[in-house]
Amino acid sequence: MVHQQVEGGKVNKKKVNYLVPALITIDPGQSGGICAMFDDKLIAHKCPKTPKEMFEITQKLQWTCKSNGFPVLGIIEKVHAFPTDARSSAFKFGKNFGIWIGILESLSIKYEMVTPQKWQKQFELPKNKQQRKKELKMIAKEFYPKATLYTADAICIGLWGKNNELI
């Protein structure tokens, strides 16, 4: 299918596959991030501080994807607290996850949940958490040079989604 865009008075024709959705991927921790992938573009942001900012950034990414002719699919990391987590940090973690789910639902973005074990499996990562984080950042930087530790997981979740034909 051909998508026509008017830029500077010229009509540019661009082939767009309307059956292939754009991805909005979320690493829901407070030190996580959000990423949008569509066509050959990638946009990533550190997790905003407030629910309002989280909503606004998700809405902006959704609008950007849709305005480029793509339906949107969300992928969020399915996470849980660990018994070793302090009660207050576990509560904050669960709260953040719930806010992201509420935002996806309120924007009518269909989404999949994926466990860290499932999406990380394709990358053959080291067991050590710090080494694993560094490796994920290096992988993310190959696709998005501005990737940070905050955005690396969201970017890699998107790569997992593309590789597993969720799009």
Taking the sheet with the most strands, its summary is: 5 strands, mixed
- Helical stretch count? 5
What's the N-to-C terminus distance?
Answer: 17 Å
Query: How many domains in all?
Result: 1
CATH class: Alpha Beta
CATH fold naming:
Nucleotidyltransferase, domain 5
Order of the strands making up the biggest sheet: 5-4-3-6-7
Helix content: 40-55%
Q: What number is the mean pLDDT?
A: 83
- Beta content: 15-25%
Class computed from helices, strands and strand pairing: alpha/beta
Query: Radius of gyration, Cα only, in angstroms?
Result: 17 Å
Write out the CATH superfamily name: Ribonuclease H-like superfamily/Ribonuclease H
Number of strands: 7
SSE run? EEEEEHEHEHHH
CATH architecture heading:
2-Layer Sandwich
Principal-axes geometry comes out as globular
User: pLDDT under 50 segments (min length 5)?
Assistant: 1-9, 11-18
What does this structure look like?
With 167 residues, the protein is an alpha/beta fold. It has one domain (21-163): Nucleotidyltransferase, domain 5 (2-Layer Sandwich), CATH 3.30.420.10. It contains 5 helices and 7 strands. It has a 5-stranded mixed β-sheet, with helices on both faces. The longest helix has 20 residues, at 87-106. The chain starts with a strand and ends with a helix. 30% of the residues are buried. Residues 1-9 and 11-18 have low confidence and may be disordered.
